[in-house]
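YM 10:42: L-ascorbate peroxidase 3, peroxisomal sequence, as discussed on the call
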Amino acid sequence: MAVPVVDAEYRKEIEEARIELQNLIASNKYSARDLLRLAYACQFSISSAANSHGHDSTSTTDAKIKTQAANNDLRTAIEYIKVNHPTITYPDLYQLAGVVAVKELDGPIIEFIPGRKDSSISPNEGCLPDGKQGPKELRDIFHSIKVSQDKDIVALSAGLKLAARADSKSSGVERPKFDNSYFVELLKQDSGLLQSLPTDKALLEDTKFRGYVQLYAKDQKAFFSDYKESHKKLSELGLPHSSFFSSALEKGTLAVKNTPVAQRAVGVAVAAAVVIFSFFYLIHRRRASKHSPQQFQ
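YM 10:58: structure's back
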């Protein structure tokens, strides 16, 4: 299926869907944690399938939520939003849900760039790290989806841990919050507040991983800054190159429009700088990740 046309109307639909996702969480029928897990599962599933099979067949009607029972009850809610906004692709909707979820959990605000093509590959939690991996296995899983920096692995591990926790809607269970507490508790070996899994131990036993654990435990601002970048990187796997340029051009245009006439020349320079920066950022991403052409059409 072709990449969606991300015009003003499409962006309007995205913003309306964002509000509906926020209302979905506020209704307490579905948790932000579940939506975050769905966003993760989507990216790991699509990337894993592309790496395994070399191509990604696409179909809007077949792209449904088919995963474990924990996410099955999201089907009706997500489909309802999809019916209201049929032009939005499922991958865009899933990743928008992840961005909304992090914000609703009091986490950092993450920029969302739309434009993902639809996919017949359904989010499958079986593709997610399950907490049983040691350092090598954990790196292998992330490397397989082209996320290779240790910083990204450690930061995203906190999000995965939060997304996998017990049902926050149960009586007497405190509402989950996106913060650096995971790293704080990791360093308290005898706290008993977190279930100790092989992956938890891996983040402590590996010296490179541990360095980031210690940093994030001490500095939540540093964690938020890195997580925001890591989540954005993960969510943009599969995003066509044209979407980056479209977003950069839109930012540049807004910069010019919001500049007083007397300073319009400066505004044009700013717009040009934004586009040029985005170009080199994209080149850097392509060299760093070496994504397959089949995965990014």
